[in-house]
Automatic annotation (TrEMBL):
UniProt-recorded name of the protein: ABC transporter ATP-binding protein
Sequence ranges assigned to domain ABC transporter in this UniProt record: 2-249
GO biological process: D-alanine transmembrane transport; L-alanine transport; L-isoleucine import across plasma membrane; L-valine import across plasma membrane
Xref: Pfam families: ABC_tran (PF00005), BCA_ABC_TP_C (PF12399)
GO MF: ATP binding; ATP hydrolysis activity; L-isoleucine transmembrane transporter activity; L-phenylalanine transmembrane transporter activity; L-valine transmembrane transporter activity
Cellular component aspect of the GO annotation: plasma membrane
Keyword annotations: ATP-binding, Nucleotide-binding, Transport
Amino acid sequence: MLEVLNITQKFGGITALDDISFTVSEGNITGVIGPNGAGKTTLFNIVTGIYSQTSGQIFLNGIDISRIPAEGLASRGLVRTFQNIELFNSMTVLENVMVGLHTQSKSGIIASMCKAPWHLAEEKRIRAKAKDWLDFCGIADLADHVAGSLPFGKGRLLEIARAMAIEPRIMLMDEPAAGLNNRETYELAGLIRRIREKGVSIVLVEHDMDLVMDICDRIVVLNLGRKLAEGTAREIQENPEVVAAYLGEG
Ligand SMILES: Nc1ncnc2c1ncn2[C@@H]1O[C@H](COP(=O)(O)OP(=O)(O)OP(=O)(O)O)[C@@H](O)[C@H]1O
């Protein structure tokens, strides 16, 4: 469903990515790992439309999305979560999810803010849908809390709820376990699996090796801008080149 084809990215004299290709299958969790400076963030930013690659192409369900900017990708089914959580801190948890749904709805956010009567039914539908996504992410009990007051781990779940509300086909997650404790990481793993069960593909750039090895169907290993290996968790753990370049370092 997502095809990354021969992506090369140069920053001046630095080749951050050198001819990277891989495919993410429908309903699969694909991990992208590698040591510092391997090119993970650069790849993430290219796939999510933040950077425009020097060469190569990206296809989403057969459509070339290579030059589509970030804001045009959600409507095509590709969403991302950020390493530094980006929420509307003064809004409630529920409103944070509703905002995403409003921007998609026919009535739009301005009409809903004006509380026009013909939009009330739509508003009710959006509120119910947003609640369902909070429930899916295990934070329904926090619906009326102000988002800025949430503990970091819950904020991350809210960010995922907001992304899921758009009903994406694929979600790219930038280090979702960063800053989480063991219990929160365990909850996150369960949630990512539930997202996969919904048929949504996931690309995970992550440093937490236990999480990656636990939940990923496929793993792509980058090193110094090149693809060093690709395979299942077991194949990656047993790959001597990966162990030498990365896994063995700790
Ligand atoms: N905007 C930029 N301008 C110049 N060089 C860059 C830029 N972004 C990344 N690089 C370089 O590209 C290479 C890959 O960096 P990148 O941040 O993608 O690696 P990474 O695998 O995400 O590393 P980390 O795990 O430390 O986040 C590095 O040599 C980095 O210095």
